Amino acid sequence: MIALVRYMFTVLLLSQRYLAPLLLFLGLVAVLTSSDTGPLTATYASVAGAMLPCSVWLTMTLIGLEDQAHRSIVVVSAGGPLRVLLATVGTAATWCLLLLSAGLVLPLLFGTHTPGLADLALGTVAQLTSACTGMAIGVICSRLVFRRQGYALVLALVLLLAMLLGKGVSPVNIMLTHLQNASDSADTLAPTGALLAVTTGILAAAVAMTHAIICRKA
């Protein structure tokens, strides 16, 4: 599994298709946090919001790197479609961790903040919550499920808007709203961690659903 993740990571790196979502993330973080002097809870809410579309883009890009014939060869070599799917999600998660690191550090460079451990922990958990949600959307809207990418892109956009705007329903919207109105990271860390657990379950459900669809198509 580790070797398969390493292979997919290398393929994505060599293809340079990571550049577009990476530049989008860096650009959004720069615009949203430049010269910021407010509380870090609101700052990391903005960064987590930027993570959501970029993680969707990364996941869909990673799944779409190989054509069907090449992917079939990889599936046989890896021992089944589930291993390949899990390796794909693992590779997307690795890239999201790299973005997460940038999302923690750049606001401190662009703005005027004195972070504590609770602030950094909150920024990490908030970005992971958005990343898990984004990867779930990316898996469901990938070409493993939709042969026509136009439909997949429309659905991805609808789900993104639902996650960002679904008040009281979307865990991402609940998290972002809570962080925007909070002033203390330590008090916000526990409820944000609970939302991370929810979105981890959503990602697991998306992977299971996609695997079931792959098996039905086979």
Shape: globular
- Give the strand tally: 0
Which structural class matches the secondary elements? mainly alpha
**β-sheet strand percentage:** under 5%
CA(first)-CA(last) distance = 22 Å
pLDDT averaged residue by residue: 86
Order of helices and strands: HHHHHHHHH
Number of helical stretches of at least 4 residues:
9
Largest sheet: none
Measured on Cα atoms, how large is the radius of gyration? 17 Å
Unreliable sequence segments:
none
Relative helix content: over 70%
How would you summarize this macromolecular structure in one to three sentences?
The protein has helices at residues 2-15, 19-33, 40-63, 68-78, 81-110, 117-140, 149-165, 171-181, 185-217. The protein is mainly alpha-helical and 218 residues long. The longest helix has 33 residues, at 185-217.
Description of the structure:
Helix 5 packs antiparallel against helix 9 (about 185-215). The mean pLDDT is about 85. This protein is globular. It has helices at about 1-15, 20-35, 40-65, 70-80, 80-110, 115-140, 150-165, 170-180, 185-215. With about 220 residues, it is mainly α.
Secondary-structure blueprint of this entry?
Layout lengths: L1 H14 L3 H15 L6 H24 L4 H11 L2 H30 L6 H24 L8 H17 L5 H11 L3 H33 L1
